[in-house]
Hints:
Blueprint: E1 2-6, E2 11-20, E3 23-33, E4 38-42, H1 49-57, E5 64-73, E6 76-79, H2 91-98, H3 100-117, H4 125-145, H5 150-160, H6 177-190, E7 195-199, H7 207-218, E8 224-227, H8 231-237, E9 240-243, H9 246-257, E10 271-272, E11 277-279, H10 283-324, H11 340-364, E12 393-400, E13 404-411, E14 416-421, H12 427-435, E15 442-447, E16 453-456, H13 469-477, H14 479-484, H15 507-519, E17 525-529, H16 537-548, E18 553-557, H17 561-566, E19 570-576, E20 582-584
Parallel strand pairs: 1-5, 4-8, 4-9, 6-7, 7-8, 14-18, 14-19, 16-17, 17-18
Antiparallel strand pairs: 2-3, 2-5, 9-11, 10-11, 12-13, 12-15, 19-20
Amino acid sequence: xxxxxxxxxxxxxxxxxxxxxxxxxxxxxxxxxxxxxxxxxxxxxxxxxxxxxxxxxxxxxxxxxxxxxxxxxxxxxxxxxxxxxxxxxxxxxxxxxxxxxxxxxxxxxxxxxxxxxxxxxxxxxxxxxxxxxxxxxxxxxxxxxxxxxxxxxxxxxxxxxxxxxxxxxxxxxxxxxxxxxxxxxxxxxxxxxxxxxxxxxxxxxxxxxxxxxxxxxxxxxxxxxxxxxxxxxxxxxxxxxxxxxxxxxxxxxxxxxxxxxxxxxxxxxxxxxxxxxxxxxxxxxxxxxxxxxxxxxxxxxxxxxxxxxxxxxxxxxxxxxxxxxxxxxxxxxxxxxxxxxxxxxxxxxxxxxxxxxxxxxxxxxxxxxxxxxxxxxxxxxxxxxxxxxxxxxxxxxxxxxxxxxxxxxxxxxxxxxxxxxxxxxxxxxxxxxxxxxxxxxxxxxxxxxxxxxxxxxxxxxxxxxxxxxxxxxxxxxxxxxxxxxxxxxxxxxxxxxxxxxxxxxxxxxxxxxxxxxxxxxxxxxxxxxxxxxxxxxxxxxxxxxxxxxxxxxxxxxxxxxxxxxxxxxxxxxxxxxxxxxxxxx
Length: 585
């Protein structure tokens, strides 16, 4: 692979292919992202979004075979889903390290200014020109990096991302998972790279922080490429979308050979590779276009298969007519004025024409649209559990010092509760209390006897990264239950990934597996912490629909604005307590 660091403000990928062994993730991908453009990457979990970002950044995963050319600005920053910080690092040390390049640019600007005014730079016209060019380059770099406002931008970023009260002397290992994610984003933006690569940037962001990030990215002067499952964020930020679903490339290619999709206009696919298609409209518009493309693809496939069957019958029957050389039947008396050989020649021409058409259609026929991996829904085996008093869980006057205070919460057999609130409001803490994974410092949490509670955690970590999804599934459920409810039948893990080490799956695929481990034996109370984080857009929608008919209680903690707009159950809003603890309203 050839990676070029250039002074160009564009980011360009030519013929990029990435494979892991015999598994090809990306193939012959071309794209260009100009300054002020923001390309959103979408697609199923495992489609290659994180891989593409890391390859562009020059961070190639072990075992990857990469081919192609990449040209990008020399200062290109990448936000990882999995953070690169050492737990022993201090906040102020990481912040200062993030602006090391900016400090170096400032030093070079000062040096170039001194050289420009030095006597030796004025000794000849050539020396003066070199000094002037050096200063012009340094000044341009300093303006792009905004070197004169580092401290002000640092404070704005920490405040805007909800980290204003973060102690500068705290160690990274002392921060919560959400704080670490937001801190990584702040550090990256503070470094002011010429191009931004972001992997799930809105995970762990509340409404205010997401709005702050949207404003920053819309004002970003360089190219931005980001992978996101945040549907509202995609609508508000992306100026174009790259769908890495292989099936979509086939549909878009079909669209280019026929009429444009309804409503797409000039915004229809401007680029298509064997694995991806760039769409130049909003995410909401894209959903309509994608549905129409797939419907057109399916219609053309069905029509061509029908025509193929008809032509095969025609060729077979006409060939028998010629081969048998039979005389005309009574109902063929209109042929009596023609010689037999002319009849046979006419029939032969029709057979040849049909054969030519058949051969051409067999060569050019569109493939059947691939069946997308679809969530099969909640397996049978669960039922609403009645409590003695109609309650499954009862919370009274609970507190976790510095994290949560809650007067009361009642969970019934079919409760539908959305838990909202700013970062640090105690949403994850409340779910951990209800799941029995955390004990309150005071108060009571009473559970009905025999109650099964399942928790889909926000951050998934598997202790054995070499174990496969199939093995982990059997360990968690037992061999008998795993046979009755096969993992492959849930529509969460592709068949080719069932026996891959879980450590080699994407973050989204690992979260799919965590979801499968919960729903395979459906609990009476289903707790979901940010359920749409890391899940593909299609699965997020399917999961929301399945939860509506879930045969038990469902409690969801989420920042997802798309999910919250569609929620039709109860809502519990957690807010910071005036005294510094946390309370609920």
